[in-house]
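Please fill in the sequence for the structure shown.

STRUCTURE ENCODING:
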């Protein structure tokens, strides 16, 4: 297809081409790679859902899609995990990125598989023009030993649990059961099969000589039984300065069937001997934020998490649940995916939803990217309206829609894909 005056070919890659595909993409990101990196990524990539952009025989761009089952408010839904979108520095500003994104979304629409796409954005200025909105955020925290103390009342109310420390790779089945049991509770996370658990644990592994341990798991169980209630996944790096311990802890994730269990696991990890600093990514509503005696010592830094694109409005809005009953007509504007443009009648609530095209007058108007921003329940229709991106057409509609689209648990994806 001619793009900016030159012939380019867009096609999926072969297994033999994968190492080169990965190398070209990582060069665009400016990162260093190893054979270990190639093998790890090959374990999860779906070759039939990759896109290589070729100029003649030269690979100049990459893209991929993972077939994910992701938690959305109140349910699980098929989601296209868009990944590895790059264009070679030698071929920028020729429309290749736009054409790649257009082909991805058109293909998803025609296949009818996933009504929603999601990605991690390497740059936040890129994806809104393709209809993606910031759907979740997270806090990066860094705590020194002096800041690890919990509020005494929180400590008093922590549950009594038994704990086991194991190499994470030895207890993957237990980790998977606990993770899957709570998956539907928090929007934004996705189900991990064996491939994805291997990938998750390999993300926490380091190259030889780095000093970091392989990932460890603390499993919390009900006393006197083997019923798993939660786990903490982390790794450590020992160090001493002037004979004093200055070790580091990287917490990959803490999962539990209640806030109390998660706090008990936090307490276990923050009590590790010979460690001086802890770092983690956590949801913006993680109970740790209010459990610390001095929350400011966690030094939380806010960053965007998942970006979401509604591929097919009707199926996407039907797939999730709503905090309150809603009966409303949305006028959606979508120049990039014109099949979404029009009026959509949404009827839904906590138990289910249905969304279909209609000729009825609109209650609110919004662009597709704004719909993506509120899809996981954490974006604010009010904030979007104040910025002029959402327009109320019938009195009181904005308040009703904002209340219905929100969700009591903040969206969060703990793993980059």
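FILLED IN BY: designer on duty
SEQUENCE:
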């Amino acid at each position: 297809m001619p793009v900016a005056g030159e012939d380019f070919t867009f096609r999926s890659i072969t297994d033999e081409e994968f190492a080169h595909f990965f190398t070209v993409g990582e060069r665009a990101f400016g990162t260093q790679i190893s054979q270990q990196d190639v093998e790890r990524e090959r374990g999860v990539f779906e070759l039939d859902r990759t896109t290589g952009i070729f100029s003649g025989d030269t690979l100049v761009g990459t893209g991929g899609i993972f077939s994910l089952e992701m938690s959305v408010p109140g349910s699980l839904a098929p989601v296209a995990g868009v990944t590895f979108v790059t264009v070679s520095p030698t071929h920028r500003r020729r429309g290749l990125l736009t054409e790649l994104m257009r082909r991805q979304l058109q293909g998803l629409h025609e296949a009818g598989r996933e009504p929603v796409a999601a990605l991690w954005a390497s740059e936040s200025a890129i994806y809104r023009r393709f209809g993606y909105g910031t759907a979740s955020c997270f806090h990066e925290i860094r705590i020194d030993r002096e800041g690890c103390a919990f509020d005494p009342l929180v400590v008093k109310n922590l549950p009594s649990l038994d704990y086991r420390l194991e190499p994470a790779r030895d207890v993957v089945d237990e980790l998977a059961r606990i993770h899957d049991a709570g998956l539907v509770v928090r929007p934004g996370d996705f189900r991990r099969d064996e491939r994805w658990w291997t990938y998750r644990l390999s993300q926490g592994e380091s190259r030889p000589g780095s000093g970091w341990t392989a990932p460890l798991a603390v499993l919390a169980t009900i006393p006197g039984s083997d019923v798993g209630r939660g786990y903490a996944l982390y790794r450590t790096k020992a160090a001493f300065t002037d004979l004093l311990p200055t070790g580091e802890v990287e917490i990959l994730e803490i999962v539990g069937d209640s806030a109390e269990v998660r706090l008990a696991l936090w307490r276990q990890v923050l009590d590790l001997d010979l460690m001086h600093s802890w770092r983690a990514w956590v949801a913006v509503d993680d109970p740790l934020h209010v459990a610390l005696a001095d929350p400011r010592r966690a030094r939380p830094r806010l960053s965007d998490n998942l970006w979401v694109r509604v591929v097919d409005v009707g199926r996407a809005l039907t797939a999730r649940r709503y905090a309150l009953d809603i009966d409303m007509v949305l006028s959606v504007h979508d120049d990039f995916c014109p099949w979404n443009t029009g009026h959509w009648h949404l009827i839904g609530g906590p138990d289910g939803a249905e969304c279909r095209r209609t000729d009825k007058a609109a209650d609110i108007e919004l662009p597709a990217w704004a719909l993506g921003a509120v899809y996981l329940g954490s974006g604010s229709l009010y904030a979007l309206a104040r910025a002029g991106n959402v327009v109320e057409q019938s009195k009181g509609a904005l308040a009703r829609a904002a209340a219905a689209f929100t969700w009591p648990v903040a969206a969060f994806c703990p793993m980059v894909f």
